[in-house]
Design a protein that fits this description.
Elements (H helix, E strand, L loop, with lengths): L1 E3 L2 E21 L5 E20 L4 E6 L15 H13 L5 E7 L9 H17 L5 H11 L3 H6 L2 E5 L4 E4 L6 E6 L7 H14 L12 H9 L2 H7 L1 E2 L2 H7 L2 H11 L4 E4 L6 E5 L2 H15 L4 E6 L5 E2 L3
Parallel strand pairs: 2-9, 4-5
Antiparallel strand pairs: 1-2, 2-3, 2-13, 3-5, 3-6, 6-7, 8-11, 8-12, 10-11
Helix pairs in contact: 1-2, 1-3, 5-8, 6-7
The structure holds adenosine-5'-triphosphate (ATP).
Adenosine-5'-triphosphate (ATP) binds next to helix 1 and helix 2.
């Protein structure tokens, strides 16, 4: 346990995610699409501290450049929702201060809100010593959002259903990524709604594959970045490019920097460029920084573990 201004608190860090493959199936009756969604956690971290307080409070710190100003400071913050759901489940008042240090771009397709929700669940579970197991935390997480169960688990995994039914994927190797974030975020709901509309006007939904491609699973096991790069796939590309035409051009810069592959992460607008080595990632970082400005470029590696305690 760490001491935060004289009060005992728990601090954890939560990684962002990139989507290696995102296949979007037909719209379900509950308004969600069935997905085959391959996630990888990457080393861009939000840090979340929970400490006892007289009432539920949220503070958020971070660079305005990543959109921190748009993060709610009330009970609609996903971390606060996580605390409330855990408090209700364990029959106690949700009286904690949640302090969030944002580094994951907001509304960037890297699941920053879900990361904070997963972080708050784990931190409060530890603070309150609830004794709930991983499985029950995962179930609570799924109620908060489709990506939260993966954010709890980390590594590389495929999510079925809305993305919450997870199967880990073997892949001990480390991959190196360069991310270019956009100046303004994109709403996940807006992207999926636009996608549904264009599917409907094109005469219905495409069939969902049974799982990730074989090429992807082989590339992960062998640590083959070039092969993995060729397997990156996102069914939302046409919709995202319609909403943000400049992203198609940005992704095309992948060829200029000899990226192994390039893909929009999830609903975007962050673009992910896969490097063939750590050195290559650094070359890509410098080149892309010259084009877009260094403040928009992030270097990271993955897979990394899910939520981890930060030692006091
Ligand atoms: P995903 O990749 O899961 O689609 P995202 O990365 O595109 O999500 P988030 O950063 O999770 O998007 O934020 C989406 C919206 O959720 C924000 O615009 C903000 O209003 C709201 N939000 C609520 N809680 C948080 C939080 N802790 N951090 C960031 N955004 C939050």
């Amino acid at each position: 346990m760490s001491t935060v201004t004289g009060v005992t608190g728990v601090t954890v860090r939560a990684p962002a995610k990139v989507n290696l493959q995102l296949f979007v199936g037909p719209l379900r009756d509950d308004g969600y699409h069935d997905l085959v969604n391959v996630f990888q956690s990457v080393s861009v971290y939000d840090e979340v501290t929970v400490s006892p307080a007289e009432r539920l409070r949220v503070t958020v710190h971070g660079d305005d450049g990543i959109g921190t100003r748009a993060v709610p400071r009330d009970r609609t913050n996903l971390a606060a929702e996580a605390v409330a759901i855990l408090a209700a489940r364990t029959g106690r008042p949700p009286n904690v201060e949640i302090s969030i240090r944002k580094r994951i771009p907001v509304a960037g397709g890297m699941a920053g809100g879900s990361a904070d929700a997963a972080a708050a669940l784990v931190a409060c579970d530890e603070l309150w010593q609830t004794g709930l197991g991983d499985r029950e935390l995962g179930d609570l997480g799924a109620r908060l959002g489709s990506d939260v169960p993966f954010m709890l688990m980390g590594g590389t995994a495929v999510g079925y259903g809305r993305g919450e039914l997870l199967e880990p994927l073997a892949g001990p190797e480390r991959f190196h990524w360069v991310f270019v974030r956009a100046e303004t975020g994109l709403s996940t709901a807006e992207v999926y709604q636009a996608h549904s509309r264009s599917r409907a006007s094109a005469g219905g939904g495409a069939a969902l594959p049974p799982g990730p491609t074989t090429g992807l699973t082989h590339a992960l096991v062998r640590g083959d970045a070039r092969r993995l790069g060729a397997e990156l796939k996102n069914d939302l590309h046409p919709t995202v490019f319609k909403l943000r035409p400049e992203l198609e051009h940005l992704l095309g810069l992948g060829q200029e920097v000899a990226a192994a592959g390039a893909v929009v992460s999830g609903t975007g607008p962050t673009c992910a460029f896969l490097a063939s080595s750590e050195e290559h990632a650094d070359i890509m970082r410098r080149h892309l920084s010259q084009i877009t400005g260094s403040e928009r470029v992030l270097v990271a590696h993955g897979p990394v573990p899910g939520i981890e305690r930060v030692p006091p």
